[in-house]
Here is the input.
Amino acid sequence: AMLAAAAALFGTAHAAELHYSATLTGNQYPTETGSTATGEASIVVDTNSQTIDANITITGIKFDQLAQHLAHSRMGPMHLHRYQGDDVTLIMPFPFDATYAETADGFTVTIVDYPYAAAAQAVRSDLTFDQFVAALGGDPIYLNVHTNAFGDGEIAGRVSAAD
Here is the structure.
């Protein structure tokens, strides 16, 4: 029993961080728009606190080009989509708020300690946190940036485990 208690204590003291990345372009599935805009994303999932940190840099898309109907919704103009055959579901939003900062040639998004439960609720996702983590490890998950010109996404990148 003492060994189990020590293992439980050690497990809660050291949260597992899962690191993912994505390179966004307009010439790869699912966007294939030909857009010259690009992006880089680093996503860290903390399995202990069930939160997400993200650092995203987009070049070639300005705020006024973002899909306005999404920018003014709880979903935001950028989100993670889960692809399972023909079934595409929205699983995590990046709401357009103070985490977005416009740059000379695009914008950045910096999110710290975003509770997965709040993200899932915002898009009415029924994925539990454990299912979300499993999907990141196995399903095609894409980060898409939606613009006025390309409502289905101007640029996208597949999220994969970071090296």
